[in-house]
Amino acid sequence: MNKKRSIEKDTKEKILSFPSNNPNPVLKISKDFILTYCNKEAKNEIKKIHLKIGKKVPSEWISFLRVVWKKKKMEKTEFLFKDKLYILNIVPLTERKEFVIYGTDITEMEKDRKNLKRIENLYNNVVNKNIDSFYICDVTGRFILVNDAFCKLLGYSRKALLKKSIQDLEVKENKKDVKTHIKKVIRLGSDRFESILRKNTGKKVCVEVSSYFIREEKIFFVFLRDISDRKMYEKRLKDINQKLERKIKDLEKFNRISVGREIKMIELKKRIKELEKKER
Length: 280
Known about the structure:
Blueprint lengths: L1 H20 L4 E5 L4 E4 L1 H7 L12 H13 L3 E7 L2 E10 L4 E8 L1 H22 L4 E6 L4 E4 L1 H7 L3 H4 L13 H14 L1 E9 L5 E11 L4 E8 L1 H52 L1
Antiparallel strand pairs: 1-2, 1-5, 3-4, 4-5, 6-7, 6-10, 8-9, 9-10
């Protein structure tokens, strides 16, 4: 029995001492919206809004507290104490006719959220709207991130590409060659080259690739430009040049034959004249 009472007493003391021991702000507000208690951390913050024990809380708090009291259940809200942003968990204790408010500092979390949003916007504006295809992959060639242009270039959905690696799409190099090429880019830091990838339809697309190894993160930033049209025109030009070269060779051969024949005719005429002179 004594042991049980000791445990109950210890538990009660812990509960009562929780607000003062809590490293985050803890407030108690009466049903009449008067601040009746604040721990050390809370005291530092309420000074910023000129609030003291025994004083009525700000009007914007009162409006929210009325709603909480009516609902008779805990509610959350955000509140800015000058330079710090807190989530306030407001607990209505109807039997004690007061509110207990537990605050959690989310200032750094909010900064991280804004930074993440900024990075997302940067990605959307710089990468996703880039007319060039772009992807990020790890040191094994596995895709981590792909932009819309890369998906459109190959005819795959983003979800499908993120299950693949560059080895699954590469035509010009086999898996062993790709592995060797990856090691080369890691060693040099960057590389620019031409390659051929296989589209979702099975067709091939020629690309110019600029690959950059981000050593700290052990990932590759890769930009690709579709050069299929350029390669097609280059092939056409090469074919035309080859045809032209063949025609030139044929013409030269014809000229050699014609010139040789002409020379022979001249020599023959000369010989005939010489013979005619001898006969006279």
